[in-house]
Amino acid sequence: MKKKVLFVCLGNICRSPSAEAVFRGFVEAKGEGSDFIIDSCGTSGWHAGEPADGRMQQHAIKRNYKLTSISRPFDEASDFDNFDMVVAMDQSNLSALKAMARNEQDLSKLFLMTDFSTSFDYDHVPDPYYGGSKGFELVLDLLEDASEGLYKELQK
After folding, report:
1. Can you give the three-state secondary structure of the chain, one letter per residue?
2. pLDDT tens-place string over residues 96-153
3. For the domain that residue 24 is a member of, what is the CATH number?
4. How many domains would you assign to the chain?
5. Is the pTM above the cut of 0.90?
6. In this structure, are residues 18 and 67 in contact, taking their beta carbons and an 8 Å threshold?
7. Is 1 or 137 the better-scoring residue by pLDDT?
8. Which of 53, 79, 127, 145 is catalytic?
9. Most buried among 47, 98, 101, 142, by the most CB within 10 A?
10. Which domain holds residue 130?
11. Rounded distance, CA 71 to CA 91, Å?
12. Active-site residue flag, 121
């Protein structure tokens, strides 16, 4: 049975599409890409229909990640049913997801990406939108680190 993971940030143009690409790259490198369904979305619909932020794409390409997702808002009517794990990039988005949860089962699927960090001590993946290149690189560093921990969690 495929493992289904949904990554969530605010606008779905920087952090969550990057998490989707980084985690996909991680499982594909292990030869397990076909064992997963990986997607991303935002708690807002501000950028619905748009590709990932161009700056984020440029930084991701340098690490051989291609951000192919198109922004969409979280669908509370189906996303909780369609995914095993819903992984938020920060506390604000986690709180928004908790408010959309319909029951305890939905709540049990919610996690913070940094819950899976192995080397970094951050409590969230910071939004790089208003920052410079260091912010985009930090996002990728954090996501690469947490992808390993997330993968290990899914193997349990």
Report:
1. CCEEEEEEECCCCCHHHHHHHHHHHHHHHCCCHHHEEEEEEECCCCCCCCECCHHHHHHHHHCCCCCCCECCECCCCCHHHHCCEEEECCHHHHHHHHHHCCCHHHHCCEEEHHHHCCCCCCCCCCCCCCCCHHHHHHHHHHHHHHHHHHHHHHHC
2. 999 999 999 999 999 999 999 999 999 999 999 888 899 999 999 999 999 999 999 9
3. 3.40.50.2300
4. 1
5. yes
6. yes
7. 137
8. 127
9. 142
10. 3-155
11. 20
12. no
Catalytic residue, from 9, 41, 79, 145: name it: 9
Would you state the structure tokens that stand for residue 136, as one six-digit string? 């985009």
Distance CA 147, CA 150 (A): 5
pLDDT of residue 62: 97
Contacts for 49-58: CB closer than 8 Å, 24+ residues apart: 50/13, 51/13, 52/13, 52/14, 52/17, 52/18, 53/13, 53/14, 53/129, 55/128, 55/133, 55/136, 56/13, 56/14, 56/17, 56/18, 56/128, 56/136, 56/139, 58/136
Choosing from 14, 15, 24, 41, the catalytic residue is 15
Q: How confident is the model at residue 11 (pLDDT cuts 50, 70, 90)?
A: very high
Residue 123 falls in the annotated catalytic set: no
**Both tokens assigned to 111:** 């996690």
